[in-house]
Amino acid sequence: MAQKINQFEPVGVNPRWPSYKSVLARIARGPYVEDAFYVNAIREYITREDARPTEPMMVPNKNNATDSIPIRMALVRLYKVLATAPDNPQWLQELAHWMRYYQVGIWQLFFWAGQFDVLAKAVGNDRRQQNYSIQTAANMMAAMAILGWKEAVIHQGYLTHAALNRGHQLVIEYEEEHRRAQAFMLRVFADWVGDVSHQWPAYAYDEPVYEALLANWRTANPDDLLPCLLAACDRHTWQTGKDSQRSSYDFDQESRMERVPLEILYILRLRQWEGLPNPQQIDHPLMAAPFDQLPPEQPVPEFDELMQGVLKRAREDWPQYDEVLSLPVLKS
Which of 46, 88, 93, 262 has a CA 20 to 30 Å removed from the CA of 143? Predict the structure, then answer.
């Protein structure tokens, strides 16, 4: 096995890989949305202001649709926290705080996609809610692994496979943009838990480095895996850029993950959970501090008042809410 893994030769760092300084400059340019905008929108959902229109053209929420504003509020902050971690001693605590918002938002989004199907079918409509981002879901699963939240990673992995297998993924992202790193992370998850799968399009299987990592990520000797991990680090630097109609990148400018080794730390955390040793050092510029080692597992914060309110409203509107989001149902 070791000989096969060691056959991988690194291609080198992309000479046009964005510097940390350039990433910070783009973050500084914005755009920005004030917290108050999101907080007010979330409070409108909690207090049911969305069901009491105050303007003539406002449509009331007659179907009690769940609201995924927390995910929009969280993602900008989660990506910024990760991108600026080298300058922020509190990055893990901030990551944990905003990850709780993301969790509530993704539950809301996933639940409503399925409920929309039920309501549409009842009136003979074949419309679908295809609003689940595989790129974002896999990135956040990796961020949960960085935090050491094992149960959250497991739930996120099954939730994302359920979205895929029920056809709720964003079509263009899934069929045309070919986010191989994110497909890889989800395939590793399926291999890890062993009781879920998805038949991906051909592009998900055509990256040799990822195929070798998938086949060998449980190898007992961490040094045997090192050439593959270094090659994956190199690949990360080549998969950075600004998305366009002609090109898409796994770690694009919008997500700001150009210098955050999500996929590498994800593999290392899964190995840790499997009781396997990790390489003492991965000598690559992508693995700069604080990403040069797995952080200690972080406590899971309680939901704050806003997120408690969102969940309270959703559960009042939909008595089956928690059941639909439960692991047994997601696995079915």
Answer: 46
